[in-house]
Amino acid sequence: MDILQLIDRLEELFNEAKAVPFTHNVLVDEDRMLEIIDQMRIVIPEEVKKAQQIIGQRDRFLAQAQEEADRTIALAREKADQMIQKDVVTQEATRRAEQILAQGRADAEATRRDADDYVLDTLVNLQDSLEKTLNQVRNGVMAVQQDQMRKSIPTSSTQSMVEKVEK
User: Fold this and answer.
1) Where are the domains of the chain?
2) How far apart are the first and last CA of the chain?
3) C-alpha–C-alpha distance, residues 88 and 84, integer Å
4) Total-model pTM
5) Is there a contact between 76 and 97 (Cβ–Cβ < 8 Å)?
């Protein structure tokens, strides 16, 4: 179950609550409310774990990119050394080795950027989801408070009945 469903259940519980006459209070089923809160405590750390997994994936992507870059550089150096040994192609070997090194660096940087973009997009989506959830919780709390206030304000007929009783 995700956090949004739990918030909906919590809001539903408050909507079903019975108002205590002449107060701003409502009676809520304590067991149901505590059950929902316990489930929220379980779900929220799962969302945080997801974010940590995404960061772990990013680190693995970066490590793989570094390994690929190191392999490419090592390969380029090997090829450069072989080419240098040949007198006629020494200049071509140097140029080609630099090209391979540059390509390896460019590939590694592109992989790093892709990994960072992926992590950023995923974290932004998670942030948006958490902000929406927080807004829904705030709206639910505000709605319950407004409902409680509305229920606690006596109407004109109730006021006249109260005045008669007081006389």
Assistant:
1) 3-142
2) 56
3) 9
4) 0.37
5) yes
